[in-house]
């Protein structure tokens, strides 16, 4: 079937429409120089652009972590971590480099020592047998606020997670 036919055009529009619904993140990996990666998140779409670049997409409502790290010959020059919620078309969002159109920022931390604290907080959520994608969004805001204030975040426990699931069920 060629794309000149009406049905081929509809298929192209459907793909474009589906892509517009996704929050896309551009990931680049140049070993020990420029590294972008997803620490957690359910990827709905993955497109390879070049050997070093790919674009991943997340469905509206999906929570994911985007890590950006850069170095030069003398060491790390920039490191950032964001926990984001992918937005639906028409929802308000904040723009971020390499994230299209943007997302709801649940956590934003800069500087390797603090980024490492966030990575440890993610590890502790996983240690509690909870998928970080399913953890309460308020937990990621809490982690952001505590680390930004120079304090340790409270651990995310199974009890907190069950309370979050009940709250989500009640709120609909």
Task: Kindly describe this structure.
It is built from 4 helices and 8 strands; from the N terminus they run αββββββββααα. Helix 2 runs antiparallel to helix 3 (137-148). The protein has one domain. The protein is of the alpha+beta class. It is 34% helix and 35% strand. A 5-stranded antiparallel beta barrel has the order 1-2-5-6-8.
Indicate the radius of gyration in whole angstroms: 18 Å
* N-to-C series of helices and strands: HEEEEEEEEHHH
Uncertain segments of ≥5 residues (pLDDT<50)?
A: 1-5
- Which strand-content bin applies to the residues? 25-35%
The count of domains is 1
Biggest β-sheet strands, sense, barrel? 5 strands, antiparallel, barrel
How many helices in DSSP terms? 4
Distance between the termini: 43 Å
Shape: globular
How many β-strands, per DSSP? 8
- Mean model confidence by pLDDT: 91
Strand order of the largest sheet: 1-2-5-6-8
What proportion of the residues is helical, as a percent range? 25-40%
InterPro entries: DUF2840 (IPR021263)
Organism: Aurantiacibacter xanthus
Protein name: DUF2840 domain-containing protein
Report a brief summary of the structure.
By secondary structure, the protein is of the alpha+beta class. It has four helices and eight strands.
Blueprint of the fold:
Elements (H helix, E strand, L loop, with lengths): L5 H16 L1 E8 L3 E5 L6 E4 L4 E6 L4 E10 L2 E12 L7 E3 L2 E12 L1 H16 L9 H12 L9 H14 L1
Antiparallel strand pairs: 1-2, 1-4, 1-8, 2-5, 3-4, 5-6, 6-8, 7-8
Helix pairs in contact: 2-3
């Amino acid at each position: 079937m060629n794309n000149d036919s009406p049905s081929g055009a509809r298929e192209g529009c459907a793909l474009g429409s589906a892509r517009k619904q996704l929050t896309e993140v551009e990931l680049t990996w140049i070993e020990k120089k420029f590294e972008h990666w997803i620490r957690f998140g359910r990827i709905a779409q993955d497109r390879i652009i070049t050997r070093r670049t790919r674009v991943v997409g997340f469905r509206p409502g999906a929570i994911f972590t985007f890590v950006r790290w850069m170095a030069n010959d003398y060491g790390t020059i920039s490191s950032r971590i964001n926990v984001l919620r992918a937005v639906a078309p028409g929802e308000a969002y904040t723009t971020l480099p390499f994230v299209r159109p943007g997302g709801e920022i649940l956590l934003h931390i800069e500087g390797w020592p603090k980024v490492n604290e966030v990575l440890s907080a993610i590890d502790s959520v996983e240690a509690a047998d909870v998928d970080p994608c399913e953890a309460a969004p308020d937990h990621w805001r809490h982690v952001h606020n505590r680390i930004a204030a120079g304090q340790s975040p409270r651990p995310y426990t199974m009890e907190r997670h069950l309370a979050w699931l009940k709250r989500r069920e009640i709120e609909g």
